[in-house]
Amino acid sequence: MTIPDSKKSPLPLITRIGSIGRPGMIRLVLHLAAITVICFAAGFGILALDGDKGPAGGDHFMFLNESAFLTPQTTTVQLDDAQSAEIGIVFGTGNLQVGSGGDGLLTSTCYGQNPDCRSFIETSASGTEKIVKIAQKTGHPVFPKRWDILVTGRVPVALDVTAGTGDINLVIGGLNLTSLRVVAGVGDGTIDLTGYHGGDFAGTVTQNIGDMTIRVPKNRNVIISAGNGVGDVKATGFTGEDGVFSTTGYPGIRIEVTQGVGSVTLEAV
Amino acid sequence: MQSTELEYITALKERLGKRLPPEEVEDILSDYREHFRMGRADGRSEAELCRSLGEADDVAREMVATHFVNKAGHTKSARNFSHAVLATLGLGLFNLVFVLVPIIVLAVLLAVIFLVGGAFIVFGPVAFVLALLQLAGTPFFALWANPLAGILFSVGITALGLLLIIGNYYLANFFYRLGIRYLKWNIRVIRGTEEE
Fold it and tell me: Is the minimum CB–CB distance between B79 and chain A shorter than 8 Å?
């Protein structure tokens, strides 16, 4: 039986790959593989040396600039004549970064899809104290949301943070705290009080699921009581046992940590 | 069911003539005429020979499937392969599961790899230009966390895309050969089952 020739393939570019000789193809593949491996290795090497350069200087290791895909929206609450402040932050889903600085009492920058990322802010005053409540509006995120909040260190602040799902990173060594309350749902958390020069305060940290790291200055009097359901408690630079750890002495800063599932790491640095 | 050589050959010619080239139909028919001639010489009746050959419809379907599978085996092309698959599907409803499903799965896999490779080849140069702009201090769209690393990643992504396309070509060739062998095996199994 004679088999008639069929028409040529409709994908000439692809079929041309076959016209390259076997030695030439092996050389090409090896070169491409080498270029791929070297470029990715060098790229990740540069990132590892450079660290993350995200908009808030977080510690996430990523090669794409997250904020390039998100619309930043910045809102500032002025300090006015307030001598102290009470700040409540309610955050649903995403990564929350709280730091010190900014022009006013509070500067909020939200990276997310417009308009569901907009924060809801309510301010009131009680004598010389300014009360600010800031909450994330609900919405379905296309990209992971990130919320950066800067709080002034010029006046004493009572800080209350409630977070749902996502990582929280509180770098609040530059604040002057009168109290601290952190309630986190699911995700890892860091509370960094390194370089803290404010007054003594009492704080509570409650986390359901995730690892929590608390960093305090070792030259301050700090006592931390930590209890968790499932997971380890590790303390570095502290003295103490049975879930109660302290630095140089007491009275001073007192923090009570309640953890559900996950490890608790305490560091005096 | 045909009971004479004339009826059988006529039925076969009618069915094959619609799908196969005339010279090939004539080849097949002459084989069957020879079969009848030798059978009669052995003292067998035409009706008995017709019964032993099976339904002309089934024989025609097998012949068509074998023709297209052989053709696809000789001349590689997506068109020939699809004809072979369609002809094999005609051999039985169960081939919808045993032939069509694996072919679709493999085709989707190849398409996905091709699309990913193509996307990398397109994205790489674009990301490279964006990284250069970012490095030059004119971030039209600051895509990369680090523009220098972004340049390297862009080159790496482009090279990876080319590798995927080349790999996909060889994978497609491999699946093609495998598919043809599978279709031939499928026809043999069906023929064997009918002979039993």
Answer: yes
Q: Does B78 touch chain A (CB under 8 A)?
A: yes
Say if residue B121 is in the same domain as residue B159: yes
In a domain, A181, yes or no: yes
Question: Helix H segments across chain B?
Answer: 5-17, 22-41, 46-53, 56-74, 78-89, 95, 101-135, 147-195
Segments forming the whole domain that contains residue A104? 69-268
Residue A13 counted as domain residue: no
Across the interface, do B70 and A5 touch by the CB < 8 Å criterion?
no
- Three-state secondary-structure class, residue B78: helix
Shortest CB distance from B156 goes to which of A7, A35, A62?
A: A35
Average of pLDDT values for B55-76?
91
Say if residue A38 is in the same domain as residue A85: no
The answer to whether residues A126 and A203 belong to one domain is yes
Residue pair B108/B145 in contact by the 8 Å Cβ criterion = no
Is residue B184 domain-resident?
yes
* Residue of A5, A39, A59, A71 for testing the chain B interface, max B β-carbons within 10 Å: A39
Query: Cβ separation of A63 and B144 shorter than 8 Å?
Result: yes
The answer to whether residues B49 and B103 belong to one domain is no
pLDDT in tens, B156-169: 999 999 999 999 99
Is A53–B143 a contact, with Cβ atoms under 8 angstroms apart? no
Q: What's the domain range around B23?
A: 1-54
Strand partners, A100: A151
Q: How confident is the model over A211-255, as pLDDT tens digits?
A: 999 999 988 899 999 887 888 888 888 888 778 888 876 678 999
Cβ pair A3:B74 closer than 8 A: yes
d(CA A186, CA A163): 8
Task: Give chain A positions within 8 Å (CB) of B153.
Answer: 39-40, 43, 63
Residue the block writes with tokens 């409803």 = B93
In a domain, A9, yes or no: no
Q: Is the pLDDT reported for residue A83 higher than 60?
A: yes
| CA-based torsion, B109, B114, B117, B118: positive or negative | negative
Average pLDDT (A60-85) is 75
Please tell me whether residues A38 and A162 are part of one structural domain: no
